[in-house]
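Form 12-C: Joint structure prediction
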Amino acid sequence: MNPETDPSAPVLALSDLVVEYATRHGRLRSLDEATLSVAPGQIVALVGESGSGKSTLGMAAGRLLASNALHVGGRLSLAGRPVYGSGAVDGEPLRALRRDVLGFVFQNPVTALDPTMRIRRQMELACRGRREDRHERPVAELLQEIGLSDVSRVLRSYPHELSGGMAQRVGIAMALRRRPRLLIADEPTAAVDATLREQILRLLVSRCREVGCALLLLTHDLHAVAQHTEQIAVMYGGRVIEHGPTAEVLDHPSHPYTRALVAALPGAEKPGQRLEAIRGIPPVLHTACPGCAFAPRCPDALPECRSTRPVYAAVGGRKLTCHLHTGGTASRSAASARNGADRDPADDADRDHHGQGRRTAT
Amino acid sequence: MPFHGDLLSRVSLVVLLGLLAVAVLGPWLPLGDPAAVNVGPRLAAPSGEWWTGTDSLGRSVLPRLVEGIRTTFLLAGVAVMGTVALGVALGMLAAYYRGPIAELIIRGADVLFAFPSLLLAILLVAITGPGAPGAVISIVLICSPLMVRVVRAASLSVVGRDFVVAARVGGAGPVRILLVHVLPNVAGTAVVQATYALSVGMLIESGLSFLGLGLQPPNASLGSLVHEGAVYLPIAPWLVLIPGALLALAIMAVNLVGDGLRDALDVRGVEVRR
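Section 2 - Result
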């Protein structure tokens, strides 16, 4: 392990990270002051629509963003070592930090493996450069652990000879081979056959728990999130807008966007009942959003939501970026006055009430 | 033309291997000394005794043709190796390091690309002086720009792929990524491109020799044989036609083998055929 990393520090900590992409049509802001913290060994889901900045956040963790990405502001640290912001590591120390702390599991397992190399050689390469190399167990054992039966055939195979599910298992084994402290999995089951998704995800989470590795799971799949993760962070418009214990957040979502996401989730509806789509389209930011990015689509938006940026603050055991839940009294009473209902995050009936209201309006 | 491409490239491969065998074994074939003069009558037409006739100095043309094939393949082959080494290295670098290094490489390639190839070759030989080194350098500089572009394009699609990101997460440095991950993935493309470079190289070498800027007499190449025979075209046309036809045959064979290789190495093509 890298002696300079701090074992007690969060494995991943972002504060107000701003990342923009320089494109032919000007700047695109992908992360707009995103703040997030992942403790060692924690299983965290990062959910949000396409374009909300999840993948940018994942790649930024290893400073692996595309060459047209620009770090505009804020800080990111990995196991206590700064990756973006003042004193950021670079060159050989950055490579050593990635090697010791990070692992990646990709969406498409087949492109995550080098098509010109047999699996055995890829797995051997995956852990080169570690000092404890010689004490590593043979690759065959690692493959058995992740539930592959025909190990010797897999080791002799080229990636295109494996099924998607097998390739993803190999990808997980490779990512965990170096015993990283943080594994970032970007929709690891999206390209896998539907019947295998649950298996692969269970494998991923259980392997992470066994080796004590934190997992940041980037996904759309709220059902999977509910079953497998301890914490959930919801992203919208390049910011983390709600972060808390998974069960609590999904049962009693506070942020209007989280509430809308949960309402759009199939599963609990009665026959004949329509699922709620979120109206409007996600924002495309070119610069800092003047207010809350969700305000134009938010059913409960206050006047200040469009003009003042909400701050990321602790509210009752979770973190929220919302004017309706500042923990203070002013905006809460304003919201109550406007909606004629108390906006307590635990108030489930309130959510239902709004759901009904919108449903009849549609 | 996939329906008869296979047969055509197979025949071409046989022709190419035959010519290569002649080129390699040439000095040991019992054909006589290619430089010996007055071994027969002057400007004799092809006959049972002199299969491909004799030239104005009474030299037998057959050993000279064999030597010509040998020279043309040798010079073009050496130049192609240089082209591959230079083009693959620069192409991968230009793909991996975007920014000033890449710009420099790409613009440099564009400048060379802008010259008509034979004009550039003549210019370079004017600097280096006539002879084999000048011809080889010319071919390398003429063929490299295309090689750089093709390899760079192939590498760009590789360096963005997930397994390269995975290697970087694993702490791999640029050297390891380029040699272990990118090179094997662009090797097929580079090989196919090299066959085209070989045919262009043969053409340039012959062109330079025809102009008297390649290998110097009494050494023969296919181009210099055409040049020597050109004066006698009305009375001894075989002196031009035979080396000319051999050159055309060799270049065509190289190109068709290249096409066959391209089809064989194109993974997507294979899947479609299944």
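Section 3 - Comments
Chain A touches chain B through 33 residues (CB under 8 Å). Residues 328-362 of chain A have pLDDT under 50 and may be disordered.
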